[in-house]
Amino acid sequence: MSATYDQLIALLTKLHEAPPGDITPDVTYAELDVDSLTLVEISMHVERELGVSIEDNELHPDLSLGATAKLIDERLAS
User: Fold this and answer.
1) Which is the CATH superfamily of the domain at 3-77?
2) pTM of the predicted model, to two decimals?
3) 39-to-29, 42, 77 alpha-carbon distances in Å
């Protein structure tokens, strides 16, 4: 995948203590039992560390990590 995807994995293992072996590009936040507070924290970290703003309605439990990385990469490219 991309460096952004790798950063998301690192962030999830830090904030949510998700086992890296459970994380794949197709897994959703809901499948990892990520709660809404953690989603807000992820959004804040992405904005602070990468300078990309993600709206609350864009980062939702049914979004996959691969789709999140793609969204961030598209914003970084524009």
Assistant:
1) ACP-like (1.10.1200.10)
2) 0.89
3) 8, 5, 23
